[in-house]
Every structure is written in structure tokens, then in C-alpha cells.
Description:
alpha/beta; Rossmann fold; 2 domains; 10-stranded mixed β-sheet; two-stranded antiparallel sheet; 14 strands; 18% strand
Amino acid sequence: MTDEKEKNNDKQDVEKKTPEEKSSVTKHSITVNGEALAYTVTAGTIVLKDEDQKEGEKAKASIFYIAYTRDGVKDPAERPITFSFNGGPGSSSIWLHLGVLGPKRVLMGDEGHPLDPPYRLVPNDFTLLDKTDLVFIDPVSTGFSRAVPGEEADQFHEVKKDIESVGDFIRLWMTRNQRWASPKFLIGESYGTTRAAGLAGYLHQRHGMYLNGVMLVSSILNFQTAYFNPGNDLPFILFLPTYTATAWYHKKLDEDLQKDLRKTLDEVEQFAMNEYTLALMQGSKLPEEERKQIAEKLARYTGLSVDYILRTDLRINIHRFRKELRRDEGLTVGRLDSRFTGFDRDSAGETAETDPSYSAIHGPYGSTLNDYVRRELDFEFDLPYEILAPIYLNWKYGDYENRYLNVAETLRQAFQMHPTLRVIVCNGYYDMATPYLATEYTFNHIELPPDQLEKISMTYYEAGHMMYIHRPSLEKLKSDLAAFMDSAAPG
């Protein structure tokens, strides 16, 4: 009798811990390319449960999402569906949602600078809703998504667990909405590209869900390309063209290099991948005369002084570059978008206090999302919407501990299992978080047959990490993504 009573108490405890799923459904319309497009928005939560429990299911986390589905479609199962998320790790889905994909976007200046508050949303002429239904997912601890009471949130703050929880949400949403027959796409940004590559493998292997395409915005799959650790010379090489693009934008290069950005970058890439690489590989064995010649070329390509570069041992760290390029003016350049500048309390410091390019978008995106979700989507929630939770500080790498995370191999295996998969990779020239040459290096080292490599396309934009805040890049990005979807799911 006592055992039965304890079981009932345990069951009641589980029920108390299980939050109710919430949802709000609203109707809207937008005109895209002269065509009226009516759509339904569902803002809500789905509770993920542990299916391995012997007695009943145990709630683990409540995932917040916003789904856009086009009205008047004869057979929704034939319409493409795209799942979207951002990176961090710790970022909500706000950036791709209100920057490029959704039917509303944050109103910014054409170059991407914020207007004066209060900020507002405007109809997004470049939404992808004309091509696909959209589901924006906030991973656990971001947006309104939380671990349920009694569950530790940090169990989800790990590479594989993050992929599994987002993948299981996708499976559940697809099942409930009867969309397994739809053409399926993922789009991720920054660490979201890491997650997307992992999901391409997980969804195939765990659920038999084969994707039509994966869209990677500001990609990082191989973390060795971005970690400035002693003994790892790769980032110094791969960041160099982005330093050059930044110096070009701020007019710090010689006159001949300022004429044509793409021509200049071609020259710098050749130097980086050949002469500069060979010099760094020699380490302390590099002859002094050659060392000085390399320093002179680096100075020419970065706008920094020869003396400064020699003192860095020919290895320019991203954080130092951001401070050094315009130090004499008391300015620091942005990391997410190096077109932006800001100032620090200590102009003589080695690292920046803030990223001015993030500061420019944090307020406009955060305030408009909080207003939009409650006032237009009628989703009432008292929890704070976590735009960028600091969980990246304690992110766990599991099987990748003591080595660099590299999910490019997972993406290769996805191609192996599903040879018709297509991938598009979108790069910003002024992105110092995930520089374009590092991305090219990663994809040049994925061991795929030539016919599979042809299914990977690269696009480039004269903007930064969130290239869509720059209106000309937003227009091009929409065109590139739409063409990619047409090729990956024709008809």
C-alpha cells in the first residue's frame, strides 16, 4: 500500500512540474511582389518529454516557437516548411525572424544603423513566406523556452543535447501539423549553422527525416578556424582577408588597394593561403629578412604599422585588430559587423569593452519583438524574452572535449546518406565573427565527390554577420535564398 501511495505521489509531482502548452493563433496579410498573401501565425509552446521513462512520460522542457503558414493552400503537405534558429549558443531566433525571413522586419537605416527610438516593425517585402512556411525555434534557455521546474537547464547546454532537443521539437511539430510530406529546409545563423549541420545528421539518423536543403548564414562548422590559441596558426591566416575588407571600408589601405574590393581580396587570399601560410609554418625558423618582408605585406593589407605587426610575431589577433585599426582616433571597430565603430573607456586597451555592431541591433530588435509577440500575436507571457542568454560561457562540448568542434564531418555524412541534399552558405565580407575565408577553408576540406560538392553554393555580401541589416544585402540575400529553394524543391 505504501509503495502504491509513493507511486501516486510521484505521478502527482510529475504532473505539477509539467507546464501547460500555450498557443495563440492570429490572422494577417502582406503584399509581396504585388501579390496579396494571407497567413496564419501560431505563437506557442510545445513541451518536450522524456520518452525513456518506464512509467509515463516526464516533461523536460517547454520550447517557444512562432510559426507562419500561408492560408488558402490546397494541400499544405506539398508546401515547403523551413525551421529557423540563430546561434550564440544562447541566442533566440529573433535575428533571422525580424531581420530577413518573417513578414515583418525591424526598420533600420539602409546601411543598417538604428533609427531613433521608439523602434518599429514594417512589412517585410523580402520575406521568404512567399516560398515557404516558417517556424522560428528558441532553444532551451533562449526566448521564452525554459527547462521545466525540477529539471536542470544546463543539461540542454551541450552540443549533442542541443541538437537532439531542437530535432525532437521539429519531429513533434511536423507530426502534429501533418507536414512530413512537405519539402523540408533548415536555416541557421552563426552557431545556428553548427546546429543545422548537426541536425542534418540527427534528423536523418534518428527520425528518417531527409532534408531538401540547408541554408547556412555566417557559417562556423570547424571551430579550429576561429580559435586564436597558441600553436593554432589557422585563424591568423583565415581572418586576414576580413581584416583587409575592414581596412578597405575604413579607407586605411594604399590607393591602389582601395579601387576594387573584390580584386584586392583576391590578391590577399593568394598571399594568405600561400606565402603567409608558409611563413607561419616555419615558426622561429623563419629567416629575419623574410620575416620583415611578410610584416610589410601584412601592413599593406591591414592598415596597421610594420612595427606593430612585428611585435605581434606576424600573428594579428581579432580583438587586437579591432582596437588597433582606428586607435589613433579613439575608435573600435565592430566584431559582428566591422563597418560599425564605437569607443571604449580605455583607448589604450588590447580588447574592446563592447561590440558596437551588436549594440546597434540589440535595442531595436529586442523592443520590437517584445511588443510584436504580445500586441500583434496576442501571446501573453510574463517571463523575460531572453534575446542572448550568456549560456555560451559554460557551454559543454561533450564528445568534442579537448579537441576542436567540427560538424563538417556530420554534414558530409548527411550528404552520404542523402545525395540530393543541397546547401547554400551566405557570407559577409565584414563579418569578423565567422570570416568568409574560414568558411571556404572548411568546405574545401569536406571530403565529398565532385558531383556532391556542386550541390554546395557560396554567396557573398558587402555587410557583416547579420548582412540583412544592410538593405542592398537584404535584397540580394532574399533573391539568393529564393533561387536556392527553387533548385532544392522544384515545382
